[in-house]
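Data card: per-record layout.
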Amino acid sequence: MARQRLIRIADRYVEALGPRARVLICQLPLALMMVGVVLATPAAWPALPDSLFCRYALGLQAAVLAACVLVPWQRFGPLAPLVIPVLDLVAIGLLREGSSAGLPDPGVLSVLPVVWISASTLSAAASLSVSFIVPLLAAMPWLLTDRTAPPAARAAGAVLVPLMMLAVSLAMRFARARLRHEQWRIESKEAELQALLEDSRERERLLNTILDTVDVGIVAVDAGGRRLLTNSWQAQLEESASAASAPRSGEQPAQPPAEEGRLVLTGQDRSTPLPLERRPIRRALAGESFADYLVRFGEAAASRVLSTGARPLKNDAGDFRGAVVVFNEVTGLVDALAAKDEVVSTVSHEFRTPLTSIIGNLDLVLADSDGLDSPAVRRVEVAQRNAERLLALVSDLLMSASSAVHVHPRRTDLAGLVEASLGSAQAHAQASRVCLAMDVPGPLWANVDPLRISQALDNLVSNAIKYSPDGGSVRISASTDGGLVRLHVEDTGMGMTAADAGRVFTRFFRSPAVRDGSIPGAGLGLSITKAIVERHGGSISCCTRPGQGSTFTLELPADGPPAAF
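The structure for this 565-residue chain is written out next.
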């Protein structure tokens, strides 16, 4: 590649010269050789000037050199300068007569004009013919004047140089053909690379246009954390966050202006800085793949809420090469949800006070029902039952609208909580023809809030009974794994589709089958249960199939047995 580059540079340099300069440059090597012969003649070959053919050769060379400078070659065709190497071959043939005066055979100098002719645009047949015939004709005077050697030797000497020149011309032709082939191949590769480069640039422009058009922030980083790409939306977001968290006049920034130095907040209080290892780009560089991870950019008063996600970049061998992190602003959605929760909380609170009063008065009526007939008592009981149901719904709404679920973990025996939950649901289960069972070894210690976990178990058992309209069984089992305790609430009820299972922990979600079956509920119990479990640092999952029941699994932090005293 370097050799071809040098050849192209030399070609451009020669093309930049005028026709006379190019002809002179081609003639210059032989002219210098002739000048050297003339300068060395007095000392080396004193008898050389006495040779008539040598004087003719030197005079012809002088005339040829002058023609190179004086003739306007640009007025003639591209083959006109080839007259010069032909005359050079004639001059060399005349000079060969000088060998009788002690001069070494100058026939080897024919290589120079033969190279010139072979490198020209002359056809192969013509250049080969000239390279052989002209040296042969130029050798005729030497052949006729040299009477000392036998005729066969003279004939062989006359033909040897033309044959050598023919071989040189053939070699030049082959080398030139090979060079042209290599040049064509390189030009083809270069054209292909240029096309690929242009296609790559076009794709890059298209990608940049798409990235700058979407209303999400995109950051690509390599395995070392160096940014490879940041679209304009993300750059504007980071600039606004940096400006919002810039130090006041006279203060010095505590951290560099990287992701670590920008104020990224999270949490319920909107003021606690997110730890560095939990920030989106740091998590992505650690190899994590996540979605819908909420963070806040900027000061608490004007912070912007973003939903982030990350996917790793891997090479063909599966090695980690970086990550792509996406930032989608959801400030409006979060504010709308907060406003909705506030409305729900306010309305529910306003409902709760009169409902409590209604239930209290109904209790008083039922406590003193001696003066009422049976139909009136039944109507009061119906009113009491529906008021209590409405109060439970209002309580669920208040809890779902609360910004945080407060828990007070302590060392608790889960087996006792499970037994109490099944005991309180026994009447409901008998009315629904559902059999309750438990397989929980006791004691089963865990570090949980007993009131909240009891509430979560009650929700799960109540749902399992409610969604078994044709009867069946509900079974609670337990297992341990390291520092975790797992509770499995399994039923044989109606089950759900995979799509419904993916949304089952969403507030107010009720599957179409449940709505079609007129099963009562508001769709809040499982969302509350999920919030309680996650507040304990645990998790909840659902495994279900339509018509084959469901299994809800709670993972909670375990605790060791009590110390012996």
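Known properties of this structure: Confidence is low (pLDDT under 50) at residues 245-258, 560-565. The first helix runs from residue 2 to 16.

See the next section for split statistics.
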